Amino acid sequence: GYGETCEVLIQYHPRLFQTIIQMTQNEDLRENMLRQVLEHLSQQSESQYLKILTSLAEVATTNGHKLLSLSSNYEAQMKSLLRIVRIFCHVFRIGPSSPSNGNDMGYNGNKTPRSQVFKVRKVYDVVRKIDVKEMNFTKHAFINQTSHEQEPLELLWHSLDEWLVLIATELMKNKRDSANITSILLKQKGQDHQDAAPAPSFATAGTEGRKDLSTDPVELKAYDVAGKQEACADCQDVISMTANRLSAVIQAFYMCCSCQMPQGMTSPRFIEFVCKHDDVLKCFVNRNPKIIFDHFHFLLECPELMSRFMHIIKAQPFKDRCEWFYEHLHAGQPDSDMVHRPVNENDILLVHRDSIFRSSCEVVSKANSAKLKQGIAVRFHGEEGMGQGVVREWFDILSSEIVNPDYALFTQSADGTTFQPNSNSSVNPDHLNYFRFAGQILGLALNHRQLVNIYFTRSFYKHILGIPVNYQDVASIDPEYAKNLQWILDNDISDLGLELTFSVETDVFGAMEEVPLKPGGASILVTQENKAEYVQLVTELRMTRAIQPQINAFLQGFHMFIPPSLIQLFDEYELELLLSGMPEIDVNDWLKNTEYTSGYERGDQVIQWFWDVVEELTQEERVLLLQFVTGSSRVPHGGFAHIMGGSGLQNFTIAAVPYTENLLPTSSTCINMLKLPEYPSKEILKDRLLVALHCGSYGYTMA
Description:
Blueprint (H helix, E strand, L loop, with lengths): L1 H11 L3 H7 L8 H12 L3 H22 L6 H20 L58 H21 L6 H9 L29 H4 L17 H21 L9 H9 L1 H10 L3 H4 L2 H5 L1 H4 L3 H5 L3 H12 L19 E3 L4 H11 L2 H6 L3 E3 L7 H15 L7 E3 L6 E3 L9 H17 L10 H8 L13 H12 L12 E6 L2 E6 L14 H13 L4 H11 L5 H4 L4 H9 L6 H6 L1 E4 L7 H12 L2 H12 L13 E2 L2 E2 L2 E6 L8 E3 L4 E5 L4 H14 L8
């Protein structure tokens, strides 16, 4: 009844309308309650709807300019701005014409321009006159002192743009500090303190509504009342002073752009904004990658934009990315750690132990996915036991059943330790439904940090992550064929008379069929010039096209619980660790089954240092080392003596490489070889090895 009550009060006391609008800044009031009140009021009339949006836009703009003031409390002002913008976007979406209903987004049902909600009829307190004499250093200032209509949010976005342009200019100068900007900031005279937090003036300013930064030493030190120093006392680094503030306003800008677009689409205006300020945004992310999860949500929701920053994100420690992954995955969910939380009987997954795969598939497909994300309760038919122990057993049994040959979903790889989707799985009429279920189980396991005792081929992990496969991935299912592809790439085939065309024969249920790799492929000869394309297309046929329906079905289930934007934070090796856990590694067995070549012998000083460093590594780092050299995080049954290479059994091998400064170790995973430079000290060896382990999968050889 809050909405109805407020409606009556406003009828008799119209001034209370602005009081309600101002309440959006009050953290003590529940945001959901305010949304409901404003939603109810906005439905009363078209003019009321526009009035609410206009008022919210003005309050958001005021808070945004306060946030851009270096003397304001960052934490409080940031929360206030984002809270108001969330409410604004909610009200905007429920208007007479929402972006999702297919109508023209520029107009509502009465053909009133929706952009009108951003406009006001006079210059509000947000827009203040600035002494032009104090802006003489500005080359492109525009100070419009007329009383024509202003757009409060557009003023805020313009301020944001100016700040980013200013920082980009400093970055281009290749200076270590921003002394020039700082001097501009500090030389501005303090003006009146009627507002709680004035906005800063800066070199490219020109919009009314900004007040100069005070030079009061006490005020300059009060950047963060909460106790977190946001900038150096001497104001040497303007990026450190402004990055978080600007990032929060960028988030608000994204939210406002998104609420005007259909679900799932990114605003062209915002994409243009990111491209324009690409260098500055990358600088922010480089300095503090967690900004992506705090404010740059648009990167997680827009793969096209995320690709611009992926190299920065993946350079962060695996442990940190795991924490960010689960923090964002579980954001907004109720606390799942309550020990005595009652279980709704209707939410229990009741499965039959003697038909666990089929019965689990049936109950999971009928269950509410949102509730499954929050928690899982499993009970076996005819058994009383429940709890986390039963859930772990359920995941453990299902992970084995997924690769049960009776269901024909997966086939073993060439080395017999990993699994790949079966291209002939359609012998099982329910195969796509089961693949979807398999994706749900792995997604649920990852969501709830439950490990599965199953390993897939490297190419299948790539499919889950959306990473293109390459010819080396073929080795997992056909090592000899992979060698042939490698030979074609390494040799001149001009005069060999291979007579290859862009079509290949492939096995379909025991019968050989010719499949074109591209339109008209049967009549296109493979030449020295196009052989790389041929190899890639053959790879895609065998590793992707042949199992595309199975991959799509699996991902449909997996993405019900794990968003594609989050899982792409990892590579295929890390995904294996997330799903299957960290294996135990016996260093003594590793040492005993290692060979040395190219000049190294067991007793060499560098080799002794190497094994000393391996002993000092954490379990996670040892797994990274094993992955780095062999391409796998697993030690096969029987230990290191049974490690497979491209041509069969192949021991872990260390080869000598001449040392040059800053040279990193490299590897050849096909032959399980670590190419270890002859480092002059144990300390340098350890440092270079750790750099290679954390960055090597991205192709770095120097650092």
